From TrEMBL:
UniProt keywords, alphabetically: Signal
Listed SUPFAM superfamilies: alpha/beta-Hydrolases (SSF53474)
InterPro entries to which the protein is assigned, alphabetical: AB_hydrolase_fold (IPR029058), Hydrolase_4 (IPR022742)
Pfam families per the UniProt record, alphabetical: Hydrolase_4 (PF12146)
Serine aminopeptidase S33 domain boundaries: 105-208
Name the UniProt record assigns to this protein: Serine aminopeptidase S33 domain-containing protein
Signal peptide: 1-31
Residue span of region Disordered: 316-338
Organism: Prymnesium parvum
Length: 338
């Protein structure tokens, strides 16, 4: 109990000192401690004459693996392009277009990732589920310009959503998929725009809650006046635990039981706060961590997503491809995680 009692006040004191060090600039504090874009980026962008382009890995071995995977995922066509946000920043968008898809995932990746590092899982997911995927790099990630902030991530996902609608997609064809920090802009957009569904993969309840040690979120001091989640509530980044109550679409949450970055209690709190008519039974993977939810049980992961898609409108149903298709490549480059 003693350790628990010291946690709330101690964390609040530390956060207060850090905020003062940044002259009370919450944005700068977030940028310094909340976002970790890969440096250098895992890829480069090579533009074609038609406004599109391709991504090339900086590491030759990864490029060879990616080329081999695309030959196996014969129904998926990949291309990239740059979008300009309303503030003039350039963000990179990568398409995984399935030839027979009726649904498109708008993919918001995790922290410490970029488009190159999510290529493998996106390509295989598109092929196996028969869906298209459009992933993007936040400002300051990959080759996207700008600086990652909560408001810029929300601006980025809205820019991609508007681009998809302008390209001819209907709102009821778009499924938001947010992993880890990507759950923040995904939940935010789900409260602002119509979408078919929302999928949250190892999500966070809020930025401040992600700082609280496992199992102490319900501790008395974390619920008291000295708790950072109350003292700095106005500075809390991505308050998904509040925003999810305003979501108006079917929602699937997925989490591993031994996640050391974001405890599974984050998903359970989000599930509890999600409107009853929209929440689905969460997909909880025993023994999985933060970065290996799909790798820990690929069959279960793909089956959970397929079951969720099949529970939506009839036109979203697709056939799961053979487990041998696209099975030779890893779901994630070795040594990289969210």
């Amino acid at each position: 109990m003693g350790a628990c009692l010291s946690t709330g006040c101690g964390m609040s004191t530390i956060l207060g000192c850090l905020l003062l060090g940044f002259r009370c600039n919450v944005g700068k504090l977030q940028a310094s401690f909340a976002f970790f874009p890969p440096n250098p980026p895992s890829y480069t962008f090579h533009e074609s004459g038609d406004g599109t382009g391709v991504l090339k890995y900086s590491e030759a071995e990864l490029q060879t693996s990616a080329d081999a995977l695309l030959r196996e995922c014969h129904s998926v066509r990949c291309f990239a392009r740059r979008l300009i946000t309303p503030t003039g920043q350039s963000i990179c968008v990568h398409h995984f277009d399935h030839s027979h898809s009726s649904v498109t995932f708008l993919w918001s990746h995790g922290n410490a990732e970029d488009l190159g590092l999510v290529f493998f899982v996106c390509a295989q997911l598109a092929q196996r589920l028969g869906v298209s995927i459009v992933a993007y790099d936040y400002e300051g990630y990959g080759v996207s310009t700008g600086r990652p902030l909560e408001k810029s991530l929300c601006r980025d996902i809205l820019c991609v959503y508007d681009y998809l609608i302008e390209s001819g997609l209907r709102a009821n064809q778009i499924v938001l998929y947010g992993q880890s920090v990507g759950s923040g802009p995904s939940v935010w957009l789900a409260t602002k725009r119509d979408v078919l569904a929302l999928i949250l993969h190892s999500p966070l309840a809020s930025g401040l809650r992600s700082l609280i040690p496992d199992g102490q979120l319900s501790c008395a001091t974390m619920q008291g006046c000295c708790s950072p989640i109350y003292m700095f509530a106005t500075c809390d980044m991505f308050p998904n635990f509040k925003r999810i109550a305003r979501v108006r679409c079917p929602t699937l949450l997925m989490h591993g039981t031994v996640d050391e970055v974001l405890d599974v209690s984050h998903t359970m709190q989000l599930h509890k706060n999600c409107p009853k008519e929209y929440r689905r039974d969460p997909y909880i993977v025993n023994g999985a961590g933060h970065d290996d939810l799909a790798e820990h049980d690929p069959k279960g992961y793909f089956a959970a997503l397929q079951t969720f898609l099949d529970s939506l409108e009839p036109h979203t149903k697709s056939t799961v491809h053979s487990p041998h298709e696209c099975a030779s490549a890893p779901l994630q480059p070795e040594g990289h995680g969210a």
